[in-house]
Amino acid sequence: MCKNRYIIFLLSIFVIYTYPNFSLGCTLCHSERSELVRAYVFGANFLLNIGITLLPFVIFIVIIAGIYYYWPIQSN
Amino acid sequence: MTNIRPLLAAGTIMGIGMGGFVDGILFHQVFQLHNMLSANLPVDNLVNAEINMVWDGLFHVLTWTMTAIGIFLLWRVAKQRAVPLSNKAFGGSLIMGWGLFNLVEGIIDHHIIGIHHVVERLGVSIYDYAFLTSGIGFIMIGVVLIRLAQQELESRIA
For residue A46, with 0-12 CB atoms within 10 Å meaning exposed, 13-18 middle and 19 or more buried, which class applies? Predict the structure, then answer.
């Protein structure tokens, strides 16, 4: 328990210390080009693109559930 | 009783995830044949390349998640004595998962929605059909291996 707290404390320090550096080092965040990228990514098609990207994976989960519950087992 | 289903589910979902990584790493990144939205947003300038990169990243998040779920399920299987740890069944389910990825992703993304194609500059091409065919082939190989494993387990019990 004590060890876990120590690890969480160290991780928190790491995140607090490095977060501003990540955001400053981000080439996507502070340029004219990045504005265009963000405008498209979070624009009108955002939810549509999320749905398109997710769709095959939703079907995969359904197939896995089918295998888990209904794959024919030969023995009785 | 040989309940092989949990092992098959674990292997198949890991196969789906790893098949996704083959697509994402080889086709999207190493060979740069297509990207996630490359049919709608051709990668002919840096802005479109970066937008595609974001959606490729989300795709990789999902394939990583599939693989992680597979590892979790496999760990659970390893702790259940009732589930036989058959190499053939696990290998078959991995291959079947890869085939499912190629078939489902190919049908939806390449043909129905058409957000990208295997070789983007060609549009719908023979490579898209080869991708689907590979999916069907992998599924068949996987099912055969799983059936063989089930028969072996049957004969061991009998």
Answer: exposed
Rounded to 10°, the helix A46-70/B87-105 angle is 150
Chain A hits for B13, Cβ within 8 Å: 60, 64
pLDDT digits (tens, 9 = 90+) for B62-79: 999 999 999 999 999 999
Neighbours of A7 (CB within 10 A): 10
CA distance B100 to B120: 22
CB contact (8 A) between residue A64 and residue B51: no
Q: Which residues of B80-100 are buried (b: 16+ CB within 10 A; e: fewer)?
A: eeebbebebbbbbbbbbbbbb
Chain B residues touching A67 at Cβ < 8 A = 5, 8-9, 12
Rounded to a whole number of angstroms, the CA Rg of chain B reads 18
Report whether B43 contacts B121 (CB < 8 A): no
- What is the CA angle A44-B17-A74, rounded to 5? 125
CA–CA dist B107, B95 (Å, integer): 18
In this prediction, residue B39 has a pLDDT band, given cuts at 50, 70 and 90, of very high
| Cα A54 from chain centroid (whole Å) | 12
The structure tokens listed for B84 are 């036989």
What's the ipTM? 0.93
